[in-house]
Amino acid sequence: MANHSQLGFQDASSPIMEELVEFHDHALMVALAICSLVLYLLTLMLMEKLSSNTVDAQEVELIWTILPAIVLILLALPSLQILYMMDEIDEPDLTLKAIGHQWYWSYEYTDFKDLTFDSYMIPTTELPLGHFRLLEVDHRVVVPMESPIRIIVTASDVLHSWAVPTLGVKTDAIPGRLNQTSFIATRPGIFYGQCSEICGANHSYMPIVVESTPLPHFENWSSLLSS
């Protein structure tokens, strides 16, 4: 959950999000090094007279041609690695289907019989004490922790987007099309997200709440809900 005046990412709760945060920090360090070098060279050129040796130096031209290529490779390789990791879905333990509507979500646990429900935002007037305004729902998505979860996302009317930042998940919900992604919740907790595609007047009123629990608790919850 994000805090007021927070400048960084939320605490990562999945391996993919941990990789994304590390790549973000890596890219920032590269950008900081580039900015420091450019600032130093600009200061040096303003403070000293230019000479023909500096202007016509072929060694300098060679360096400023090769160095940006090396920097781009240092950024591209980890980026491509994370991209392929995000697309990899290998033998999930649970498959969950999320259907976007105006303006609520429907969920289907395809591995269980008759385990479906709608998830609406709780109005502010009915919100229990201590819960988050505009983020709490009447039915949470419950998943077992440390288990590969596959999410199949679609929509019934207009474009939506199923996004939970702390899990590193964001997938567009498109009518007539099935998109899929996956995640592994590495710790128990409650993770909040929202529809991230402008989908109409009440776009900001269709939150997403994922609750990660140990496997025995998930089995008890699923048996109670499906019975």
UniProtKB/TrEMBL annotation:
PROSITE patterns: COX2, COX2_CUA, COX2_TM. The chain crosses the membrane at residues 27-47, 62-84. One of its GO terms (cellular component) is mitochondrial inner membrane. It comes from the Eukaryota. Binds a copper A center. Residues 91-224 form the Cytochrome oxidase subunit II copper A binding domain. It is a multi-pass membrane protein. It holds the Pfam family COX2_TM. Gene3D superfamilies: 1.10.287.90, Cupredoxins - blue copper proteins (2.60.40.420). InterPro entries: CcO_II, CcO_II-like_C, CcO_II_C, Copper_CuA, Cupredoxin, Cyt_c_oxidase_su2, Cyt_c_oxidase_su2_TM_dom, Cyt_c_oxidase_su2_TM_sf. Residues 1-90 form the Cytochrome oxidase subunit II transmembrane region profile domain. Its cofactor is Cu cation. Keywords: Copper, Electron transport, Magnesium, Membrane, Metal-binding, Mitochondrion, Mitochondrion inner membrane, Respiratory chain, Translocase, Transmembrane, Transmembrane helix, Transport. It is found in: Mitochondrion inner membrane. GO terms for molecular function: copper ion binding; cytochrome-c oxidase activity; oxidoreductase activity. Its main location: mitochondrion. It catalyses: 4 Fe(II)-[cytochrome c] + O2 + 8 H(+)(in) = 4 Fe(III)-[cytochrome c] + 2 H2O + 4 H(+)(out). Component of the cytochrome c oxidase, the last enzyme in the mitochondrial electron transport chain which drives oxidative phosphorylation. The respiratory chain contains 3 multisubunit complexes succinate dehydrogenase (complex II, CII), ubiquinol-cytochrome c oxidoreductase (cytochrome b-c1 complex, complex III, CIII) and cytochrome c oxidase (complex IV, CIV), that cooperate to transfer electrons derived from NADH and succinate to molecular oxygen, creating an electrochemical gradient over the inner membrane that drives transmembrane transport and the ATP synthase. Belongs to the cytochrome c oxidase subunit 2 family. This is Cytochrome c oxidase subunit 2. It comes from Chrysolampis mosquitus (Ruby-topaz hummingbird). The gene is COX2.
